[in-house]
Fold each of these.
Amino acid sequence: MYGLGSIDYLSLKKRVRAADYLVVAQLFLQSNFLLKTPLMSEDIKSRLLGHWGTCHGIDVVYSSLRQAIKKFEFVLGPGHGFPALQANLFIDGDLEKIDPELSRNSQGIAKLCREFSWPGGFPSHASPYTPGVICEGGELGYALGAAYGSALGHPEKTIAVLIGDGEFETATALASMNLSKIMSSDKHGLVIPILHLNGYKISGPTISGRKSDRELSEQIRGFGYRPILADENNLADKLITFSRGDFIIFRSEKGEGGPSFVKGQKIAGNYLSHQIPLKNPKTDPLELSILETWLKSYNFSELFDETKGFTL
């Protein structure tokens, strides 16, 4: 476990802010990545493709794991939230190990953001090209089964698996819940299942997101797990005390940190944040202004220095 079992939540929140900023920059920017000048139309990619809504939650989960657990493997069920995973791999220097041009400096940030979801660059979803990825995540439902399969017969492994609440509606995900009964022995690795409950999928609310804590906990308990309720303020502590057979239910807001309303439409806390929440910032001055305010809200200059690098 991490250190003496205490969590530095101030450091954790800084890291999440940095990762969130890098996610938004990947989704939208082709230049001016550190906002040294006012954001202009020419700074915006001509083709916007990616998913924002799940990313803040992924950043919280991955950052919390990094604080709470020394060594772990990570399986990302909602692989469409790839810019969040990529942001965290960049912050930790994992991308730099395979591509020196992705070093943790301003040039690395430029490459990370410019080439996300771009021809010849990085894909919009997690893929086998990503260090450590064993489950693409675009085919929702397989994450938990992949995590248990990787842990089978490997007691030295700790595998955290994030399951989207839309993914949790698939037959494959629900069938995989039964694997807890054959993986309860310490002859196998420790699997940490985390249900990411943000309430919405691509086109509407999720079933799990509309259940009460009690109803959802009883469903999880019926599969033989001990449900553990968590949010952004205590997830890392829950991870420190995690035991085999626990199942974490992590609640966060869909699209948290992004625009609340755009032209009268509710975005954050709604399915409209699932993909690109601002459709035309390159040509719409209002949306460009909203994007600039959104990016500046993370105060990235407090978290990254061009000389010293990340100050987290």
Amino acid sequence: MKRILTTLTTCLCLCAQAFAAAAKPNIVIIFIDDMGYGDIGPFGATKQKTPNLDRMAAEGMKLTSFYAAPVCSVSRAQLLTGCYGARIDVPGVYSPGSAQGLNPKEHTIAERLKDLGYATMCIGKWHVGDQPEFLPTQQGFDHYFGIPYSNDMEREATETGKKVVPLLRDDKVAELLTDEQQSRIVERYTDEAVRFITEQKDKPFLLYLPHTAIHTPIHPGEKFNGKSSNGRVGDWIEEVDWSTGRVLDTLRTLAPNTLVVFTSDNGPWLIKGADSGSAGPLRGGKGSTWEGGMREPTLAWWPGKIAAGSGCDAVAGTIDLLPTAVALAGGTLPAQPVIDGRDISPILFGKTTQSPREAHYYFSGYHLQAVRQGPWKLALASQNETMGRPASPDAATNAPRLYHLDNDIGEKTDVAAANPEVVAKLTAFAEAMSREIGGSNPAARRPAGKVENPTMLYSAKPREKAAKEKRSKQQDKPKAF
């Protein structure tokens, strides 16, 4: 009898553990590179078709005031840690072989969820450090497959003399990809994502899918070449839509208890002309703290939990994904280290339309350039229009400029003079945050990770040497008469 009771108790415990694991939602974050606010159907795109994202919006929620950061590495660090880049000393973009990266002492979303029993995988662009200490498998991910930085950060391989980027499997270089070979990268990422979901469907998982697309150079897959009415950038957006549809279809069948968030790392790189995306009605693009540089086309999907066809304009952002995921997984965050994000699950579930944060801060590097609360955005400094394009005359001074984003989403009309009390309130917020983590002498900035004697992931010629050899070859060519 005693043995029977012991066996029964053990079975009940195992069942309870299995139920608890099953009750935890899976988390999937699809993070596009350089996609603008106006690049997908739910946010007004017409030149390229995005039926899968249209369906995702119809079945879920549009988040219309959702923010990332002006550039790649900062944006990824913010999503992974729940902190503004200035707080964790990630101000800009890391180059291949950089000595710095996201500090391994920071607690990433993968580490938080792994502690709660989640399987974790990163597929795609990492870009918060390519030294062994900084790679995904050292930052809470069980596995990694992807290009560890931007696809234009090619170097000339010593062996072949061809410009390549590395494709990693976990912490090892699996292949060196030429430009042409990048045309299969969305397809390969998608295959890996489907395989991971299939293998992990019976236990909670985190899938972080930061696509290489649609960063230049643009390389849509063969099936998508010429498919859109918007050139190759439209073609690649349509391939991203296909990829998202395949991931969602897999989840519908195998793992419907999943929160999926689709968003982008920064706005479109406008100086790329026909190869850039669109910010839609927003001003500015990648590299700027205008809305077009940081406000992203964002969708949240979770059948039965998030109301179909819903939308919310509450201010939120990538820094909120970590605390939201931890809360949904049944965990709690300690008071230290400080994070800037907040749990936005009440917004997703339709329980509130109010942001859980007092304000949102627009940093360019360590420089706080603007702050938003509700519909009000106060610009405190000169703002470039986009990366590679200087400030326009109306934004070239450091005089405070106030915009009412509900009435003026394009940030065209400065209403500071008519609203001095709003200017004073937002200035006080900005000054306090700048003292805390901005500028050159902040009170609470945590250090970046740093290694001695950094090396490339593969044998490559130094950029200076490769450039010199190229110039020499050009000079040696016979001149045409």
Amino acid sequence: MPIAHPILSTDESLELERSLLPSRELQWTAMNNAGRGVGRAVLQDFGELAEVPSRLRVLVLAGKGHNGGDALLAADEILRRHGGGDVQVLLRAEKKELRGLTLRALEDLLKSSRASMCNELTYRQESYDIVLDGLLGMQFHPPLKDDLAALIREVNAHRGIRFRAAVDLPSGLGDADAFQADFTYATGIAKSPLFDPACAAKEGRLRYLDIGFFQLPYEGPCAFGESILPDAALAALGGLRPPRCDKRTFGHLFVLSGSRSYPGALLMSVKAALSSGVGLLTAFAPESLAAQYAAAVPEAMWVPWPETPTGGLALEGWHLLQEKLPRADAILCGSGLGREPETLQLVKDLVARTELPLVLDADALQPEIAQTAAARPAKAGPVVLTPHMGEFMRLSGRSSAEYAREALIDFSNKHRVVTVLKGPHTRVCDGSQVALSLRGGPVLARGGSGDLLAGVTGGLLAQNAKDAFASACRAVLWHGAAADHLARTKGQVAVYTTDLLDHMGPALREL
């Protein structure tokens, strides 16, 4: 399976759907896959807000098109999975105006005694746990009609609604009165309007639901030029491991990070790397901290490293690394290093004097170090950089914090690196392609989450250095999936960053 799926315009999406779904029965199957996928995902994502109540109240806003059918099937799936749910349907068309498959979805839903029709007067007087927006689909062009705009404004302002979910695209996207979603579920194809910064405030969190449209590589037009990472990209990590293996089978990662000023960053990176399934890990730690770290994480091999007077890693420790280099498959460097000139010179020497695959994070992300990476010989292993936007601006010399695909591709190509640009939608670029992940969310907006991602990236690179792009993509996706699992279990607020590590295994098994 391709590791990433294309993000298409609405016109490109319509053309692909026509070619893949020539018959009504194929369309009905796709609608079921999409709608029921939304229903399952909504029940999961509601967990980031609260436990699903025993008496779950759902309102469906349904238009006459297939988007309405998706929403109706999503409601039906919620009823199937939640024994105490009740659904009300607010239909914005006469039944005779509904497209055939949408009518079929409505009739199937209304066979349940727990589903009923309602009118605008009724919904105003009720409270709902979930509202499913299926009013308009991807063929909408602004502006909204006055009556529909008024309805959506009312729904957006309704204080009795806890969770607003848009199916495929928020209705009216591009109009000032568009549906205000908490989550938007892109079904089958991720459409490019969802990634327009001007629309971000209306979409809430984005989810991509893969329903099998890209079982074969897509060879059609793709004006947007980026791809999205499906959960299936993690399939290679979730299967059974070979029965005849030992610890060397799964790579040996070296970690050269940390300082007395930032003692936690190294520890978080090491723990995350171990959680990635790497077979062996050797960590070079400031000598004043190594014994404590060894007691905290005995699974790693800890090597005390000489310190500068202020607690950074000193150049005189180079021989400790050099004598062990033949054992390593990859090196992770940067988390908590600090910016002492001597320590940064150590990192520069590491990049210049070794040919091993590297992951550079945090304080190792300096322009002169990136330039050194670009000068490595062609036979050297790949280099993965993991900046957030502020660090990327420093590395690339850009003054704007707005994302630009061309700038990311140019930087990655010029420096011959794989760049993991962290953000609400983390992007991975190898100089020719850009793949983004929608996994993760506000639960990651806390100190240390980047150190965990660096550890996972280093661990996966040590296991699969031949494809650094794929390893980085899987690290980003797995890290985000674990964050989603954590938020659904404990919420977004009252958690520790390192709680995420306990959810890496469950998230992988769930996907």
